[in-house]
Write a structure and sequence with these properties.
The protein is 47% helix and 14% strand. It is of the alpha/beta class and 349 residues long. The strands form 2 sheets. An 8-stranded parallel β-barrel has the order 1-2-3-6-7-8-9-10, surrounded by 9 helices. A two-stranded antiparallel sheet has the order 4-5. The radius of gyration is 19 Å and the shape is globular. The protein is built from 13 helices and 10 strands. Bound molecules: 1,3-dihydroxyacetonephosphate. The site of 1,3-dihydroxyacetonephosphate has 10 residues, from α12.
Length: 349
């Protein structure tokens, strides 16, 4: 396994730093822009993302990498500088989403499998030449009940784990660190223990496939959900229980060779995603060497909700939007060390 991949994976999860997931597909970013009444064009998408990428002070302290969408990795800033160069100059690492989305899984109503393997080898080589040094592929596992069937099926878990491992092996061949993202959705009324049970099954299937397909664990990063109560569950677990069950689930399933776990936010509020990451790192520190991986963030919505609202589609608001982004990044940076506290939310960056 190349030392280069291992170093890159370790750099991404340096204490205090995490990833900004800015890789929304055109359809998803349109939904986000609709929510603030902003027009969604190639230029407004560029302006919004350029605003985030120019929050350079934040990058040197709290953001190690940015996941880009295909359109963005090819775009230039308003002054003609490639966005990839802006990111590199700010000291962050550009990454790229390479799956082509979750599609209906044949024979399994209500379930999905992520596509994008065809031509992937060639696309990865092209992205490497454009400056990407890591990649992302997201599989979606839905726990929610559908009629009498209980999801997810073993078939869905297996199909997604297989695809994730094929993607990961191709990434390592192309010298890109694969971020392996099996997202167990928080939609539904299930309790936290059911989330733990399904996540455990998913991670066991995933690491089996990664092993079978000869993926070097030292050179990947895992991007999972936290172990949470379903959004509609009547009894919501508190931060300490979330932290304990999240760590217990990963201790049972994730090999120590893997350098880092970078959580997705998955629909948690921004402050909740920070509070949970903080609690996870506090429980980890208190347990001594028991949990060997760095535990950080790779948030989309939980980093962008505040700046998106502050920007509101108006470039006159860039400074306040950047301040809102810097604040969330700083809060999450502290949470990677278990040093966040609710009072800090009210202090200016
Ligand atoms: P969220 O943090 O909004 O869940 O997004 C992270 C991500 O990259 C999903 O693929």
């Amino acid at each position: 396994m190349s030392q280069q991949l291992q170093n890159m994976a370790q750099t991404i999860v340096m204490p205090g730093k995490g990833i900004l997931a800015a890789d929304e597909s055109t359809g998803t970013i349109k939904k986000r822009f609709d929510s603030i009444g902003a027009e969604c064009t190639e230029q407004t998408r560029r302006d919004y993302r350029e605003m985030l990428f120019r929050t350079t002070e934040t990058f040197s302290h709290n953001i190690s990498g940015i996941i880009l969408f295909d359109e963005t990795i090819r775009q230039n800033a308003a002054d003609g500088t490639p966005l990839v160069k802006l990111i590199q100059d700010a000291g962050a690492i550009p990454g790229i989403k390479v799956d082509t989305g979750a599609k209906a899984l044949a024979g399994a109503p209500g379930e999905k499998v992520t596509e994008g393997l065809d031509g992937l080898r060639e696309r990865l080589a092209a992205y490497y030449d454009m400056g990407a040094r890591f990649a992302k592929w997201r599989a979606v596992i839905d726990i929610a009940r559908s009629g009498h069937r209980r999801l997810p099926s073993a078939y869905c878990i297996k199909a997604n784990a297989h695809a994730l491992a094929r993607y990961a092996a191709l990434c390592q061949e192309a010298k890109l660190v694969p971020i392996v993202e099996p997202e167990v959705l928080m939609d539904g009324d299930h309790d936290i223990d059911r989330c733990c049970q399904v996540t455990e099954a998913v991670l066991n299937a995933l690491f089996d496939e990664l092993y079978d397909q000869r993926v070097a664990l030292e050179g990947i990063l895992l991007k999972p959900n936290m172990i949470l109560s379903g959004k509609l569950c009547a009894s919501q677990a508190g931060a300490h229980e979330v932290a304990e069950k999240t760590l217990q689930c990963f201790a049972r399933t994730v090999p120590a060779a893997m350098p880092g776990i970078i959580f997705l936010s998955g629909g948690q509020s921004d402050e909740q995603a920070t509070a949970h990451l903080n609690a996870i790192n506090q429980v980890k520190s208190a347990a001594g060497p028991r949990y060997p991986w760095s535990l950080s963030f790779s948030y989309g919505r939980a980093l962008q909700a505040a700046p998106l609202k502050a920007w509101g589609g108006n470039n006159n608001n860039i400074r306040s939007a950047q301040a809102a982004f810097a604040h969330r990044a700083r809060m999450n940076g502290l949470a990677t060390k278990g040093q966040w506290a609710p009072e800090l939310e009210n202090q200016a960056a």
